[in-house]
Write the structure tokens for this entry.
Amino acid sequence: MTSHRVTSRLQSSVWGMKAAEIAGRFDEELRTEEYAHVDPSANGLQVGTGDQEVSHVAFAVDAAQETVAAARDVGADLLVTHHGFVFGGLDRVTGVEYERISGLVEGEMALYTSHLPLDGHQDLGNAARLCEHLDLGNRSPFGEEGGLYLGQAGEWPSPRSVDDVVDALAELPTGDQDVQVLDFGPAELSSVGVVTGSGTDWLDEAAAKDLDALVTGEGKQAAYHRAQEHGVTVFLAGHYATETGGVRALQDLVDSWGLETTFIEAPTGL
């Protein structure tokens, strides 16, 4: 039994583009090459030939057998994801890897992936869109990694309680999982750093910038004591839930190019 849900948008005038052109536009906007030295993901066109004609693009957070099958079912020519199939190299194509990639090949569908570049984009990125959802102003780059930024920091127009922030985060596709809170900051929160996915490694930066809170997806054991010692409240809203915004922003961008698009929602609850 599948858990995904698809939502399609058919433009009034659908026309085709080459996969290479779409990938090139994404790479330029997301500054893909600049992140190559910090990102183990093989960002860009991971599967397919640039000559493929694309008129229907599917979007999902994760590239997996489930999302590939859903994209094939709606007739997509290209699947765009945040998490792809290739992290840190690919030694062989057997077992699960074969099943994943063969689903794309048999469906004559290409795969484009953007991992850290999509996290860090200051307009289209996962953190930027989550900051918008949280109504944060005075935003600036946050989450430094190798001279680049993976997130944003911002301020609320008026202080928020922990419960206020939890309520806002619970509106994300959390898969009915509760938002976890390490409540070690002030009772009223004014400033926050946002790094989506697995972002507790940036607790020190949050403390150094005198932020009241850090919002991310999932935590690590050491984050509890680090947050307590720094006096920073940490919100864990789910890896998947915090990383849908950037992919949806890319869908909006492709809509403006006149292509048919479909979003495949397959929340993990993690």
In short: The mean pLDDT is 95. Residues 70 and 264 are 7 Å apart (CA to CA). Residues 19-30 form the longest helix (12 residues).
